[in-house]
Design a protein that fits this description.
The complex is a heterohexamer, with three copies of chain A and three copies of chain B.
Chain A: H1 2-16, H2 26-54
Helix pairs in contact in A: 1-2
Chain B: H1 2-21, H2 31-64
Helix pairs in contact in B: 1-2
The chains are: A mainly alpha, B mainly alpha.
Chain lengths: 55, 66, 55, 66, 55, 66
């Protein structure tokens, strides 16, 4: 899962932290949580569609 | 290993389809986005197969001309 | 050639499939074929210029 | 090795923060840019930790539901 | 340092060579030198902040 | 191996010069695009050499100050 965590961190940092401040503010934290959930949804869907196609 | 290769391919596809289909993350993956991701995976595989087949033909054509 | 095939697939998918549909339509297929030919032209030219420069 | 991993992480962070903070290279790294780079590194680490912690919780939740 | 040199070359080529000509002109050479110095400043700063955070 | 390294460099250069010179693929690589690709490779190598030389000098300067 290391690779997945690294990719999510980079993608969600880029989506959510437009101008880095001295802390992660509330809206950034919410954005990161939502981004992570959607990235995992996407990853799982990709994995499912790809596996079906391979069969 | 083959499993590692499949995983790498899923990571690459998730990356490409995330960039193409998710503009701003929302509360859930709505059906429009799901369709986009699903089509993205299918068309990416089609593209790869088209290219691999055409490449094979080019190689055979080159071999025939030798 | 595996690396070349993978790079071409990604580059040409991004150039040719702007909005993925339920099939590859005709214009997308033509775009992929042309994109692939141009990518290989580019790769061969790069390879030639690079080799000359190294000598 | 662990040293190689740290180096790889510094390369990745330099890449991300360069793209985010340096638009056009100037005579020196001015204080505004230094602050941006420094915050970029700190917030990137915060983001990684937030994601790793949340991921851990999801795994535990999934295990509890088995 | 190989990895650092490669990354700087790519980043600074992209920043400084907008339209490649038959030589590196004066302003491109200055841009590359400045870009390299700033990239190394950035790399060193990142390295310092990251190390402090790890402790 | 050295051959693998050369191949990797050609892949990287093809990637950079493709992004810089080919906007929309056409029937053939026209002469303007060929010139762009060729100059792109040459200037990229110049950039790498400039940076490697300058880096070497900085290291020597740092060593001299020790």
């Amino acid at each position: 899962a290391q690779e997945l965590l690294q990719r999510m961190s980079e993608k969600c940092y880029k989506k959510c932290i437009v101008k880095p401040g001295t802390t992660l503010d509330n809206s950034e934290q919410k954005c990161i949580a939502m981004c992570m959930d959607r990235y995992m949804d996407t990853w799982n869907l990709v994995s499912r569609v790809y596996s079906q196609r391979l069969q | 290993s083959q499993k590692a290769e499949l995983q790498a391919q899923v990571h690459k596809l998730a990356d490409v389809c995330w960039e193409q289909c998710i503009d701003r993350p929302r509360d859930k993956l709505d059906s429009k986005t799901e369709t986009c991701v699903s089509n993205c995976v299918e068309r990416f595989i089609d593209t790869s197969l088209t290219i691999a087949t055409r490449f094979q033909k080019l190689l055979q054509g080159a071999a025939a001309n030798m």
